[in-house]
Amino acid sequence: MTAPDAGPGRVVVVTGGASGIGAAVARAFAEGGDRVVIADVDAAAADKVAEEIGGTAVAMDITDPASVAAALDRVLAEVGPLAVLVNNAGLVAGGGLLVDLPIEVFDTVVAVNLRGTFTVTAAAARRMIAEDAGGAIVNISSIGARQPTAGLGHYEATKAAVDALTRTGAIELAPHRIRVNGVAPGPVHTPMTAGLMDDPQARQAWESRIPLGRIAVPEDVAPLAVFLASPAAAHITGTIVQVDGGQLLV
C-alpha cells in the first residue's frame, strides 16, 4: 500500500483553516496538489476558503469529541483516508497576569489549544492506524512555549503542553509510520493578533525583540508545515521548529 505522504493528492485536514495561519497552510498544501479539508467551527468562513483553494470544508468543534468524530468520518466518506493532519486551531481569548486572569479565560484556552489538539490528534491517529498507510501530523505551537511574555502565561502553558504531546505522539505513533512534528511561530500578523499589530507602539515593541526586524505573516509559517508533512522530512519526527525571525536567540 502506498504511503499517503508519498506524493500529491493526499487528504490533508487543517483545523482552524478558515483564517490566519491555517488558511495559509491550507492554501500551500492545495498549491502542491493535495486534497485539502478546511475543518473549522466557523462553517461559513471554512466554506469560503475551501472554495478559494478548491478544497472541502467541514464543520468541526475541536472541543467536542462527537463533532471531531463526525467531521473525520465525513472526510473519510467524501474525500478519502486521512494522510496529513495539521492541528492549527487555537486562541488566546484575552490576556492578563496570572493573579488577575479570569479562570473562565484559562479554561477556554485549555479546552481549545490543549484538549482540542489532543482530541483531534487521537481521533485522527486512530483512523490513520486503521488504514495502515502511515501519515503525518503537524502541530502549530508557539515560541511562547519556551519564551514567556507577561500576560500570556495561560496561552503559553497550553503551547508547552502541545509540544509535550508532539513528542509523546512521535514515540507512540512511530510504529505505525505516523510522524508527529511541530511548528513554533513567533508573533504573526493574523486576524487573532490584528488589534495588537495595528497599534504602532505595540508592534514596535514586538519587532524590537526580533533580530530580523519584522512581524511574520502567515505565509512565512506555511512552507515549514508543508515540509514537515512531506517525503523530504521522512526521517524527522518529534521535533518542534521555530519560525520566529531569531527571537529565541535574544
Low-confidence stretches: 1-7
Q: What portion of residues belong to β-strands? A: 5-15%
* Measured distance between first and last alpha carbons: 47 Å
Main sheet properties: 7 strands, parallel
Q: State the helicity in percent bands.
A: 40-55%
| SS content category | alpha/beta
General form: globular
Number of domains: 1
> From the coordinates shown, what is the CATH architecture?
3-Layer(aba) Sandwich
Domain Ketoreductase: 10-186
Family: Belongs to the short-chain dehydrogenases/reductases (SDR) family.
GO molecular function: oxidoreductase activity, acting on the CH-OH group of donors, NAD or NADP as acceptor
Keywords: Oxidoreductase
Tell me briefly what this model is.
This protein is α/β, with parallel strands linked by helices and 250 residues long.
3D architecture notes:
With about 250 residues, the chain is an alpha/beta fold. The chain has one domain (about 10-250): Rossmann fold. The protein has eight helices and seven strands. A seven-stranded parallel sheet has the order 3-2-1-4-5-6-7, sandwiched between helices. Helix 5 (about 155-175) links the parallel strand 5 (about 135-140) and strand 6. The longest helix is centred in the middle third of the chain and has 29 residues, at about 105-130. The termini are far apart. GO terms for molecular function: oxidoreductase activity, acting on the CH-OH group of donors, NAD or NADP as acceptor. Belongs to the short-chain dehydrogenases/reductases (SDR) family. Keywords: Oxidoreductase.
